[in-house]
Amino acid sequence: MLTRATILIATFLFAIPLIPVNATSPASVSFTPSSPNADIGGTFVANVVISGASNLVAYDVSVNYNPDVLTSTGASLTGTLFDPATNNVLVARSENFPSVGLVRYAVVIIGGASVNPSASGSSLLNINFNVNDPATTPTATPSEYPSSVSVTSQIVVLDNGNAVTIPSSNTGATYMPPANIGLRNVGCRAVNGGFNVLSKGFNDGIFCRVSNTGTSSIMAVGTFSWHSVGGVTGSTSSAPVALSAGQAGQLDAVLTVANANDIYIVTGTAARAITFHDGSVLAIAGQSNTFKIVVNTGF
Predict the structure, then answer these.
(1) Do 93 and 205 fall into the same domain?
(2) Which residues, 6+ apart, have CB-to-CB distance to 72 below 8 Å?
(3) Is 231 found in the same domain as 109?
(4) Which of 10, 43, 107, 295 has the greatest number of CB atoms lying within 10 Å of its CB?
(5) What is 136-161 written as a DSSP string?
(6) Per-residue pLDDT in tens (0 to 9) along the chain, 299 residues
(7) Domain tally, the chain
C-alpha cells in the first residue's frame, strides 16, 4: 500500500522544472532498433535506451507510433535499469493505447537509491510490437510507409542529494517492410536491345525475371525508369505478379520510344508489392539492373 509520503515524493519528482546538472551535453534517449525490419504480420521487441547520464532516479517516457502500421501489445520493465525485481520502483504511469499509437511510462526509484546506464546505453523500457497487415487494416494507406516512431522523455537524476531534471535528446525510428523476403532479381533487359523504329514499331517490351526463394507466397512488381541521350525521361511498372514459394516469374512492361535516333538507359527493379485493403499497392524496391536500348530511324 502506498503511503501518503511516497505519493508526494513521486508527484514532486515528475513536477520538477528543467535544471541543467553539471553536464555539458544532454542525456541520449533512443528507440532501438532504429530500423525495425519485421515483416507484415510479424512481431518485434524494441527498447527505449538511455546513455550519457548518471545517478538516474526517475523518468517519464512517451513513445508515439502510427497505429495503422504498428500495434503495441505490451510493455515491461523486466531486465531494465528500473526493474522492480532489483530496485524499489514506483510506477507512476503505465499507459498503452494501441488505438492512438501511444506508450507512456513514468517510473521512480524510491528510498534514495539511483542507477547508472552503461557506457553503450541501457534499457529503460521494453515494448512489444505487432506489424499490422495493410490488407486487413481499413485505414492504412501506402503513403504511411515508411512509418516513423518518435520518443519524448523527461529524465531525473540525483545531484548532491537533490532530484533535478536534466536535458535529454531523443532519437526515434523508422519502420518499413523488408523488400528481400525471398524475392531475387535474376535479370532485367529489353526484348529488343537495338532496333529500327520504322520497321519494328515504337513499343519495346522490357522485363525483369525474378524468383521467390522464400518459404511463403509474395507479390512482386517490376518498376522501370529511364533517361536517354536525347533527354527523354520516363517510368512505368508491370502488373503485380503472385509468386508461390520456389516459383519463378517475369515482370513485363512496355517502353514507347520516340521516332528519333537515341540511346535509352533503363533501370529495372524487382520490387516487393504490398497490397492494401482498397487494392492500392506499395512497391518496396529490391535488386536492380541497368540496360540500354539503341533506337535507329534509318534502314
Answers:
(1) no
(2) 63, 65, 96, 98, 101, 103, 127, 128, 129
(3) no
(4) 107
(5) T-TT--GGG-SEEEEEEEEEEEEETT
(6) 444 434 444 554 545 444 444 544 789 999 999 999 899 999 999 999 999 999 999 999 999 999 999 999 999 999 999 999 999 999 999 999 999 999 999 999 998 899 999 999 999 999 999 999 999 999 999 999 999 999 999 999 998 888 999 999 999 999 999 988 899 999 999 999 988 888 788 999 999 999 999 888 999 999 999 999 999 999 999 999 999 999 999 999 999 998 899 999 999 999 999 999 999 999 999 999 999 999 998 75
(7) 2
Query: Are 156 and 198 found together in one domain?
Result: no
Last residue of a domain, one of 146, 175, 204: 175
CB contact at 8 A, 157 and 17: no
Same domain, 159 and 248: no
Domain limits at 239?
A: 183-296
**Distance separating alpha carbons of residues 128 and 63, to the nearest angstrom:** 12
The amino acid present at 143, given as its one-letter code, is: S
Residues with Cβ within 8 Å of 4's Cβ and at least 6 positions away in sequence, in order, are none
All three cell numbers of 18: 528543467
